[in-house]
Design a protein that fits this description.
9% of the residues lie in helices and 37% in strands. The chain is mainly beta and 271 residues long.
């Protein structure tokens, strides 16, 4: 009865999570009478994601993090977020083999995992949210294996993409064409942020949450040019104070501070 009186003060979402944990605790205590052993649930439980040589342990979360090339990523920051107590986040770092391990407090709660990889590129620090192999929350008393990988492009589980934006603008006094008719060409200027060789991108601007842009661009340094069906445009970095030219070479900025949203703002006009 004490448990139920405490739960009455929780919000509906927290109540559901707490009930799930309580049910799992009951399942754990039934092991001696033929129930599943601690740390092992069936596929519907959503709390276990193990590789062929890995096994979940109670009150432990562990995993491996790899880069875009499949090689281990060291020094990646990994977070375990307590879903019932705000601000109770545990942090770990991967070792030279890309592995991490976090011991969780033995409390009745659930956990969500995330990881961030920070890279210095052309004098700027970029932080990348990593792609989870399994993004489901899990009960602490079951433990879990949660692996991550670094992706420069592709869809994120929370919507949006891992890639960056190249956003198009016109001068306020510039008329005579629509941004949707503009085609940008992005030529990589050296290796991408992960050290790989990029590919040229030629694409028309499309509506995105950041404006008329090319989205999901792998982060790197690019030489950018623009054209209309009728002919080329001249371009410059927006608010950069530079002169217009047939092309510009630019790195990505973070217009929203610490948020990992990166973009290049290109202003264009007819020559």
């Amino acid at each position: 009865m004490v448990i139920w009186r405490r739960l009455a003060f929780l919000s509906p979402c927290l109540l559901a999570a707490a009930l799930a944990v309580a049910c799992t605790e009951t399942s754990k205590s039934s092991t001696s009478s033929g129930g599943p052993p601690p740390g092992e649930l069936d596929d519907d439980g959503g709390t276990k994601d193990v590789g062929p040589n890995e096994e979940a342990s109670a009150y432990v979360v562990a995993g491996t993090i790899v880069g875009t090339n499949g090689e281990p990523l060291p020094d990646v920051e990994v977070y375990a977020d307590n879903q019932l107590v705000e601000g109770s986040t545990l942090v770990a770092y991967t070792d030279s083999a890309g592995r991490y391990r976090l011991e969780l407090p033995e409390t009745a709660t659930t956990w969500a995992m995330s990881a961030t990889h920070t890279v210095e590129y052309h004098g700027t620090s970029y932080s990348f949210p990593l792609h989870p192999e399994n993004d489901r929350v899990f009960a602490g008393n079951t433990g879990a294996i949660r692996n991550f990988s670094w992706k420069l492009t592709g869809t994120r589980p929370d919507d949006g993409n891992y890639g960056a934006f190249v956003v198009g603008y016109t001068e306020p006094a510039e008329f005579g064409f629509e941004l949707s008719d503009v085609e940008l060409t992005l030529e990589p200027d050296g290796p991408l942020v992960d050290g790989s060789n990029g590919k040229a991108i030629t694409k028309k601007l499309e509506r995105t949450p950041e404006g008329d842009a090319i989205d999901d661009v792998p982060l790197g340094r690019y030489t950018i040019s623009a054209k209309l069906p009728s002919g080329p445009l001249v371009v410059r970095i927006r608010n950069g104070g530079g002169d217009y030219a047939s092309s510009i070479t630019a790195d990505f900025d973070a217009p929203y501070g610490s948020l990992p949203i990166y973009q290049i703002d290109v202003e264009m006009k007819q020559p």
